[in-house]
Amino acid sequence: MNTRDVVFPAGRQALYERNRYSPAIRSNGMLYVSGQVGSREDGSPEPDLEAQVRLAFENLNAVLQAADCTFDDVVDVTVFIVDPQTNFEKIWSVVPDYWGRAPHPTVTAVGVTWLYGFQFEIKVIAKLPKTVGV
């Protein structure tokens, strides 16, 4: 059996262990990142939607950084949005601050009814830099 090469961002390992999942796994030159939400240090949701989206991207960037990646290495994005008809435009107004320049990664947006108290979640797949050998 292969051992999972788990990536933990600084300071949040206890949160992931409590919830029993890995923030990211390196495999075959790729980084598979679990869905990131706009959670505060204690894991609770940031109540303001725009601030929650920004915090989700900051949490994502911390995971990417722990794997020596940036958002520029991201090739595929999936976002989950509660009530997308109401929230999409407000959420998408934040994206340019984190997305970078074209060419952009692929994206799939999924409307959902529940995200454990959150309104937005983002999960990505990134290509690991060539200097990372896994």
CATH superfamily: RutC-like
Percentage of residues in DSSP E strands: 25-35%
Tell me the total number of β-strands. 6
Spans of at least 5 consecutive residues whose pLDDT stays below 50 are: none
At the fold tier of CATH, the topology name is 60s Ribosomal Protein L30, Chain: A
Alpha-beta classification: alpha+beta
Number of domains: 1
CATH class descriptor name:
Alpha Beta
Strand arrangement within the widest β-sheet reads 1-2-3-6-4-5
Q: What is the correct CATH architecture?
A: 2-Layer Sandwich
| Total number of helices | 4
Radius of gyration over all CA atoms, rounded: 15 Å
H/E element sequence: EHEEHEHHEE
**What's the pLDDT, averaged over the residues?**
92
Shape category: globular
- Fraction in helix: 25-40%
How would a crystallographer describe the biggest sheet? Answer: 6 strands, mixed
Distance between the termini: 16 Å
Explain the layout of strands and helices:
Layout: E1 5-7, H1 13-19, E2 24-27, E3 30-37, H2 49-66, E4 74-82, H3 84-92, H4 96-99, E5 106-112, E6 120-127
Description of the structure:
GO terms for molecular function: deaminase activity. InterPro entries: RutC-like_sf, YjgF/YER057c/UK114, YjgH-like. It comes from Stutzerimonas zhaodongensis. With about 130 residues, this protein is of the alpha+beta class. The protein has a single domain, classed as 60s Ribosomal Protein L30, Chain: A (2-Layer Sandwich). About 30% of the residues lie in helices and about 30% in strands. The protein has four helices and six strands, in the order βαββαβααββ. It has helices at about 15-20, 50-65, 85-90, 95-100, and strands at about 5, 25, 30-35, 75-80, 105-110, 120-125. The protein has a six-stranded mixed beta sheet, with helices on one face. Strand 2 and strand 3 (about 30-35) form a beta hairpin. It starts with a strand and ends in a 7-residue tail after the last strand. The model has no long low-confidence stretch (mean pLDDT about 90).
